[in-house]
Amino acid sequence: MSIRLSNVSYSQGTACLLDGVTTSFTAGQVSAIVGPNGAGKTTLMRLISGEMQGSGEIFYHERNLRQLSLRAQAACRAVMTQSSQVVFDFSVEDILHMGWIQSDRLLLNETLSAVANRCGISSFLDRRFNSLSGGEQQRVQFARALLQLSPVAESNYPAFLLLDEPTASLDVAHEMMVLGLAKEAAAQGLGVVVILHDLNLASRFADNIYLMRDAQLIAAGPPEHILVADLLSEVYATPLMVEQHPQLQCRIVLAR
Amino acid sequence: MGKLWLLLIVAGIALSAALAIGAIPLPLWDIVTRQATPLQDTVFMDIRAPRVLLAGCVGAVLGLAGACLQGLFRNPLADPTLIGVSSGAALGAVAMIVLGDALQLPALLAAYAVPVAAICGALLVTSFLYAFAARFGQFNIVTLLLVGIAVNAMSTVGIGAFEYLSDDRQLRNLVFWMMGSFGRAGWQTVLPALVVMILAGLILLRQSRGLDLIQLGEADASFLGVDVGRLKRLVILMSAVAVGAGVALSGIIGFVGLVVPHLVRLLIGPLHRFLLPGSILLGAGLMMSADLFARTIIVPAELPVSLVTSALGAPFFLWLIARSRRV
To answer: What is the reported pTM?
Structure first.
C-alpha cells in the first residue's frame, strides 16, 4: 500500500536534477518533502506524478507507473500543481466536475456536495472561478483533487494525493485549513505526498519528512528524527535551532 | 441546453430565409409540394440549395474550428487564420489557379484541382507548423502561435509571388477567391467537400471533454487521464482538414471563427459539450445570413461575403481587445 521508488534519477543535458532516489511513501500518512531551493523536490514530484519520465522505476502498489495507462494513473493519484489559471469563465462547479473521472453522474452530485462541504466551498459553487481570491481558488483545486480520488472503490487500493506547495500563496489561516484537509484525507486512508517550504508546517502536519539536498534524498523519517538542529543547519547552510512547541506535541524550527 | 434549441431555431430561420430570398424569389412551400415552375425548381436545385448548403457548412466548420482552437490554445483570440490554416489553404489554391493551366488537367479533374490544392496547402502548413514546433523546443502553445505568425508571413510571400506571375484573367480569378464567395457552388464540388467537413466535424465534436480539461493546464489535463498529445494532433489536424475543405470552395472568409465562439460563450457558457454544437449552429446561421445579405443588397451584382463578415467582425474584434485590456 505505497508508492515505491527504486533508484530514480533524472537529468537534463549535463545537469543531474535527481540522483538515485530509493524510498517509499505510505498510504494513510502525510509525507512532507522538504529541502533548500533547487534540491530537486519538484523534479521528484513530477516523476512520481508521471508528468516526466526519468530512469529507475516507480511503483504504485507494486504496479509499475510506466505500464499504467493515463486513465489508470488518474485513478491512483491526483495532483495539485501551483498554477491555477483558467482563461474562460467556468463556474466553480464546472471546475469541480472536471475532476470527476467516472461516468456515474448520479454519484457525482452526492460526492460533490460532500467534498464541497468538507472544503468549505459550498457557498460559492455558482460563482465564476476567476472571480475567487487565491485562497478560495486553492481550496477549489484541492476539492477537485479530492473528487478525482473519491471513487477509489473500483481499484481496491488507496489513492495518492500529490501536492506541490499547496500553501504557497495562502495566509496562515488557509495554510492550516488546506493542510488540515490533507491530514484528514490521510486519516481516511489516502496517501498524501506534499512539498512544503515551511519546516514548521511539515513538523506540525507530516507523519514522515523527506529531506532533500543537491538532487539527493539525504534523510527520511518521523519529524523528531529529521528536525534536528545540526542536520538542518548543515543542509540549509544557515544556523538553525529546534525547540519544542510550547503547546503542541511537535517541534518548531527557528533561525538563529 | 434550452439555449441550444434557441440557436437551432435561429439557424433554421436563416436557412429558410436564405433558401427563399434571392434574385429570383422562391416559394419554398410550392417547391416542397412540387407546385413550383420548372424554372423555380432549377434555380432551387442547381443554384440556391448548393450555395446555401455550402455557406451553412463553411460557417459551421469555421465556428467549430474556432471554438476548438481557442479551447486548445486557451486563448480567446485564436482562430483558424491565426495558426496559418487559412493562409496555407489560400497558398495552395492560389498556386493551383496560377499554375493549373500549365498542368493541362482533364476537365473532370480540373474542377477539383483548386479545392484539393487548398486542402493540401492547409495540411502542408499545419504539418510544417506541427513538425517545427515539435522539433525545436517543446510542443507548447506559445511556440505554436509564434511559428504560426512566421508561417502566415511566408504564405503571404508565396501568394504575392503568384500574384506577380499571374496573367489578367488569373488575377481576377485570384482576387475573387481571396475575397471569398459562395457564388460558384455546384453539387459536383460541394458534395465531396461536405463529406470531408462533416467527418472532420464529427471527430472534433467528440473532443469536448478533453478541451474542457485542458483549460486546467496541459499537465493537469493529463493527470486527469487526457492524452494531451493526441488531443492536440486531432484538433489541429481535423481543424485544418475541415477548414481547408471549406475555404477551398468559398475563399478566405475572416472573423467568423473568432466571433462565433465568443457569442456562444456569452450565451451558453464555456463548457465545450455545449459550446461546440452551439458554434456549429450559430456559425451556420451567421454565414447563411451574411451570404444572403451579400447577394441581395446590390442585385444583380453581389458583394464578396468576406466584406460582410469582416465589416461586422473587425469592430467586434476591437471590442474584444478593449474588453480584455480592461479586465
So the answer is: 0.87
